[in-house]
Amino acid sequence: MMKTIAFIAVLCMGSIAFAQDDPAAGGTGFGFQAGISLGTDIITDSAGNPETWNNLGFKPDLSIGPFGIGFDFTMRFKLMPDPDTAFEAYPGDWVPDYEDSGKSILDLYLPKIMYVRYGQRGDPLFVKLGSIDDLTLGNGFLVGNYSNTRFLPELRIFGLNVGVDGQLFNFPFVGVEALTGNLARFDVFGTRLFVRPLITTSIPILKDMQVGATIAVDLDPETFVASTDQTGLDSIAISGADIFVPIIKSELFPLAAFMELGFQPQGRSGFMLGAGGRALGFITYGAQLRLLGAGFIPVYFDANYDLYRAAKAAFMEQDPADLGLENFAGWLAKAGTSFFDDKIYFEVSVDGPFAGAEAGSTFQGDYPHLRGVAGLREGVLGGFFFDLVYEKYMLGMENAFFADLVDPNNAVITAAVNYQSGAAIFTLLYNLRYDPAINDFNVTSSLVTTIQF
Asked: How far apart are CA 378 and CA 278, in angstroms?
């Protein structure tokens, strides 16, 4: 299977829309932008030999009111690869099942659409196709911060997220949100249906209560596992029910309480009770108490699910009693800050069990887990802006807690760092994750220069 292992340099000429997958919707008129990209990729062939390919792309972007669509038509090629050949195109971008890649026509051609969107999340009708990032269903106990972008820039996956609120039809009692991580394969999908049973009453607090039900499924946990290494893992289905109550709706001190119950294979179950909000408009906070059955994994579909889905499925196929696991209580705490309409933000959440892990335990739930995000939007600090995410699993398994915190083992690091100078924007994308299967780090990166017109 062909695999892009590094972007050496990319020179892009086009609009800023191509430095992002989902430009913000704005305005009510018609907009059109287009760009041309030129760069160089290093690709490892099926024999493990690196090859250098030039790439040339055309990237049009169209918007009409709340609707927008962007394309990425890129072709890799070589000029004079040998004395007898003037031009050679790289077939892996356009030919299905090239060298047994396992890609279908949909796998290959759907990602040529960078994104399609209608509206914004929170609108009565919201639709987004393409890259899905930081998606939560319900209170996030089962599906939290799910993303299908963990293989960028090496691999783009075309997903779907849609939300419909009954308020769109003057029927505010119900709403639904659904997702699929990969529309070409429809392997990971989930949905949450919620009702507001008291919305037409005047009962304080309870009139805005939501009661919801969630189901999430992975039909092929070994999607990204090489065919020679697959073991035939069964599909995974989890489900749950939740309640969400906005207790205080003040702009200065909004506060909500929530609870969620979840069910996973082999009789696993878990319960969460929590609260969270925002103080003074710039301090975010939250806390949860978790009562978890043996082997239950909170936030099963998390931000890095695509990286670890096969390992999680293999764990779910085992009986918790056979693994010597017992029921346990856990917690989550998060705090952060946000300024200038969220143009500067920082948040850290930490969760784990109340009891310490037994010596030699390899169960994820026996150890604390940390997720930190930070970002700086355009226009705050000159031409500099960035997004950073650091996520660390199994804290304290190898070393003491704080020593493990800076150890990249069992960590996932993503960064998008940008600098704008005049009409040019320079973007560095960086992804690093520890892969226990090879006992080494998997790193992908991209360097992009964009010229705005």
From this structure: 23
- CA-nearest of 71, 42, 41, 76 to 56 is 76
Q: What pLDDT does residue 25 have?
A: 43
- The CA distances from residue 124 to 42, 68, 164, 397, in Å, are 44, 17, 6, 45
Domain contains 83:
yes
The count of other CB atoms within 10 Å of the CB of residue 177 is 23
Instruction: Using DSSP, state whether 308 is helix, strand or coil.
Output: helix
Average pLDDT over residues 159-181: 93
Residue owning tokens 């609707």: 67
Residue 308 Cα distances to 311, 373, 434, angstroms: 5, 20, 11
Q: Is 291 domain-assigned?
A: no
Question: What's the domain count of the chain?
Answer: 1
- In a domain? residue 185: no
Q: What domain range is 27 assigned to? A: 1-112
| Length of the chain (residues) | 453
Percent above pLDDT 70 for the chain: 84
147-150-151-157 Cα dihedral, nearest 10 degrees = 10
Domain-embedded: residue 103: yes
Nearest partner of 33 among 15, 20, 45, judged by Cα: 15
Segment 190-244, tens digit of pLDDT? 999 999 999 999 898 899 999 999 999 999 999 888 777 788 888 999 999 999 9
pTM as predicted = 0.83
